[in-house]
Amino acid sequence: MTTRETTPETTPVIELRGVGKSYGSFRALEDISLSVQEGHVTCVLGDNGAGKSTLIKTLAGLHPPTDGEILVDGEPVTFANPRDALNHGIATVYQDLAVVGQMPVWRNFFLGQEMTGRFGMLREAEMRDITADRLQCMGVDLKDVSVPIASLSGGQRQVVAIARAVYFGARVLILDEPTAALGVKQSGMVLRFIAAARDEGIGVILITHNPHHAHLVGDHFVLLNLGRRVLDAAREDVTLEQLTLEMAGGGELDSLAHELER
């Protein structure tokens, strides 16, 4: 296992303290605490129904928590909407990416943040150059950023979305299952970029159900089950085997194995 240098703990960029979320009588999250430091990857793992989606929506400003608090740079905040979260440097890249498939790569890169000149004319050449430069820095060398983004591979589209968030000032990236629908090679591309973002000092929250991908880049691991935190461990305190076992159900899996033995 690769060792990584540890630095003294500083004030987290974003922190959750005892966050809970209810929808009527249904309790989706219960007493969730986690913190994200600059230049660290916090992996949030869990099966379907574990509460990962609710956690994303809470962090992204879509749904306010029912109880507990969110802090940015040590100060309590309330996100009224996703724009509030963005204004605090919290950017979310969803699994469906929210790109316009037939629009050029550069238009998607600047979607909603277009650079304009006199009379509102788009500064197309400048936006093309910035897009190509940022993607090349991240290992995506496109000959022409005017091709429709739908023509890119799934991994490349993920990198476009992540590079866009970084360019527009994200301090924390929340990535929703970025490798879920990707093959090995494309997943590797995305994981390399997550490591590159971490090395640039960006805090990353990686939401995933894949313990192998999490362990490749993660510095801290939080495992959710039915809305509750059942594991909270630093990289040096948990092996891939332990993480995989916990993800698979741990003791429940052993009980099932005994039950099915003939």
Can you tell me about this structure?
The chain has 262 residues and is an alpha/beta fold. The protein has a domain of 180 residues: P-loop containing nucleotide triphosphate hydrolases (Rossmann fold, 3-Layer(aba) Sandwich). The protein contains 9 helices and 10 strands. The strands form 2 sheets. The chain has a 6-stranded mixed β-sheet, sandwiched between helices. Strands 2-1-4-5 form a 4-stranded antiparallel β-sheet, covered by helices on one side. A hairpin with a 2-residue loop joins strand 1 and strand 2. Helix 5 packs parallel to helix 6. The longest helix has 16 residues. The protein is globular and about 65 Å long. It starts with 13 loop residues before the first strand and ends with a helix. The mean pLDDT is 88. InterPro entries: AAA+_ATPase (IPR003593), ABC_carbohydrate_import_ATPase (IPR050107), ABC_transporter-like_ATP-bd (IPR003439), ABC_transporter-like_CS (IPR017871), P-loop_NTPase (IPR027417). This is ABC-type transporter, ATPase subunit.
